[in-house]
């Protein structure tokens, strides 16, 4: 022990005590998914506080020279009967009573109970030092090492803090309608019990409108339970905003919902409002589950096998390489589904898994913050099979179910999720997200981190050719753009079961008028060929500015593939907006084919004898009383901005701007939408808004040509040279840096954000500008390289699809099906099973790979 004491004394300067703000990784290895519960435990560096599994700790020691590590091992406690046990040997689980995470009474993310053992291990000989051993060592050693051990044990693990973000879903705000709520003197008195819906006679989930006393049933939930929406329909007809859930009223309060504010609210005058209809709060008892209790119940059911596809069959669990489940970290099924599919693609396997030793060897000092390291770690975890093992029985009685348990040990992608979501307003949260948006976000991060070397995102990248033909002059304009996903529209008017749908709608209206329960929902059957035709058929542009006739006229736009990618992603546009701009999901079944031939949709380019539209810009929008000086087209050229008048102010359609603002979009974004769509109406402006919401300068003020931030109009001399140098030092060209600064009013931080979110635009400046060079002065220069796209035959086979269940992308659940060795496999978070009936007609994202003949 004297020798160990001397070693500790020699490395004492490398042993730190954690301070507030230090990131302590004591639950997960930086290079693998090893944890204190894994075989061999976890070694935490007592200097950097990084965690390493037994497989990687020697590598860290050899690279850094660090010798002192805190070794943490955890073993599951044996469950014993206690006083409240029923005698089965399994103590009853404490059910959540509060819609919250990380708060007393809320969902407990650490239900497992472990016994933890810690000791200091000295490398390279792995000498062990326990707390008891420290007692006999010199005071300076004992004090420093003991403080470090205690600090590491007490510190909040980074992964734990990310997983258990405290969230309380029961915090409610006072309704803006409560203080001045008008109540009708209609003589209505509500009995203390025996309520039922006045329309359909439903006796559960009953709400009373606090304005007129109408007693009606509540909403239908996404899983089919709940009411028949009669209370909501009453609000839509009358505008009476507040309702109270009967059966939840107690002397302490009740559930009050504001339809106008679309949330559960507080009503400080609730006793007064209830007494108006003869209800005495002090004598009421709760007989119905509150909305919080119902939401808790729904949240407890979401992860169960019964509410996802293929619930009617017994599915065979699968184990082994490429069959690894992923833990749901709280609404992270969108991430799990996307990453499972991506790591079946050879490009991602080659980039991150085949070269994993090289990736890890080149990792920076903090690998937890390195994109390439964490993606490689995730890929290896999914493909190796090391974590594809049956999960230990959590204590539930297995005799209650004859269905094989498909749960795996799996992997928990906490480090990965934290890294790819960092700084993003949505993906950094525990809320449900759109899988398509996450796929594009991840592809963007791959592009950003693969500026040199192999880029696996090229597997998806393709060129789209848009051809616009002026109907008056018959002259054409060709533009190309880079894309990664084909978005297929859903033509509801092409449903093959239209008569059945009309009959179902007639029965629904009849049931609504008579108060009978609504009939079962009939799903629209849409041919895939109709979706493809809707994508490829010519679109009529009614307000196209033609440079040939120097006026607005009608044109047709045709979209075709200028290249076919190795892997084609198709999104079915199920999520759309109603007439009131409220998001809704189309309930459709589409006969998506196993094989696909898109050869007929290949772009042909300019045809022999076809004339192109002159490259003259349209006149800018301006007020009638502004003197026109040097407008492009009469004097000057695109590169010479000296003739633009900075005083030009656009005439914007106020009504369109107002409509957009009423939907909650920023004023400046609304003004830009109307300006850049040429006052062509609300539809065009809304499309512009939806297509530019992720832009860093989305809400920045509208800047007109002639101003310093208008792209293409700022003289290079006016740009801060130090900003240019900073961006160029990051690996971008001077032209790209110039464009980024112009687009963001010379603000360096915004320019960096902008340049990373416009990589494709920058890499294909010629293409994205419609085939024009940046100007006459550029003609003598070497043209910038276009985007790297792969091309080949347009024949594909389906190998994966991601499905969504729920009423919107903000709720519900995602699973994915992947074809492995001619067998369809369903990945539902930690459950991995052989699929019996893959629901290919109900998918959201479809993944095809090229068929090589």
TrEMBL record:
Residues 173-281 form the UBP-type domain. GO terms for biological process: protein deubiquitination; proteolysis. Pfam families: UBA, UCH, zf-UBP, zf-UBP_var. Keywords: Hydrolase, Metal-binding, Protease, Repeat, Thiol protease, Ubl conjugation pathway, Zinc, Zinc-finger. Residues 67-97, 386-408, 499-521, 766-792 are annotated as: Disordered. Residues 324-851 form the USP domain. Residues 651-692, 718-758 form the UBA domain. The active site is at 333 (nucleophile), 813 (proton acceptor). Belongs to the peptidase C19 family. This is Ubiquitin carboxyl-terminal hydrolase.
